Batch of 4 targets.
Target 1
Amino acid sequence: MPGCRKAAPSIRNSGFGIAHSVAIAAFGGTTQLVVTWLIHWAGSAMAPAWYLIGASVVGQIALIDGSRERARQSSWERAS
């Protein structure tokens, strides 16, 4: 993300804030609906645990991918 450093801090903060708010609204707002549907569909009270495990796996994949991207950057690119 070297290009984001070119933007003013207020623009970067606004962009991060909007992206964070949209993600919370989309995923946090629908979680109860999805989990209730999963319990009904699966017929198991363990459905919320499987939902959480799936979300954790997606987060771990994103973390690993981001780490690889950062490792590909040279130290000079990270400093600028």
Target 2
Amino acid sequence: MIGRRGLFVAPRSEAAFAPSEGNIADSGLVFPTSSQRLILGTGFAVLLAVSAASIALDVKSRSDAAWISHTQEVTNKITDLRLLFRLAESAARGYLLTGDQYFAEDYRLSLDRSHPR
């Protein structure tokens, strides 16, 4: 195992077990060929594309979450407004049936609370 050189050497080949010398030119280092550089560049480009898509999807997800939160707030306000209108309607019917001022005040309070602040 002493003296192995290079990563892309066939198993049990003579080049893998040749004695190591001090000269780099004679050391048998294997440099990437143009096809290996092309594969490496393509892999790096795919990695960048996947990273960019991941970031874009994260931004989109956060934006969608903000819109969902806004929609829920609006829905809750509309539900509260419907309740106030039902209270006002009920108070108006109570006043028309009985003529009691309590229902008239309740009607006015419900309408006042339903106006935007």
Target 3
Amino acid sequence: MGRGPGACVGGGCTCVNPRVRRGKGETGRATACYNSGMSTVSLQDLERNPAALLDRVEAGESLVVVRDGRPVAELRPVVAAPVAPRPFGLCAGEFTVPDDFDAPLPNDILREFEGR
């Protein structure tokens, strides 16, 4: 776990160097860069202790999950929507409730609902 190795211009991102194939069996190194405000965790770390990583995310940390040195997912805190009561009369005048709204349904419609 931790920041990926390497440095980007200005230090504004995190780099990892996964092994990649370059024709005819040659193996080279490629560099993938992403936001430095995020720590990297391996897929194995995520599988080994997901609750601990979710605790870190819940505390406000953003994580990038890497597999074979490549970023594949981002875990970040969800911004909770403010909880406020709905305003009274939000849809006033938009629709009317018919007088027979809670009347029993006709038998043919009931049979359709019951699959008979």
Target 4
Amino acid sequence: MLQAVEQFVKQYEHKRHAVIMMLLQDIQDRYNYLPQPVLRELSRMLDVPLGRIYSIATYYKFFSLKPKGRHLCQVRLGAARPQEGNHG
């Protein structure tokens, strides 16, 4: 698990602090969420406080700190609108 993080960090090493979001996206793409041990290692490798990484990971809705299923289903709880031309 942590070898993949090392690979991601090396890929973006020339812009270390500016690419935390890209690294988090890569990590989430690989694991389908952001595992805590991986975030700790990322913090250590980038020499960025863990709190900063968590603040980014929790600010954006598309990041998840909990494992998700392979397929996501989103349900809209608003009033249904009939499609144009469909009056029934």
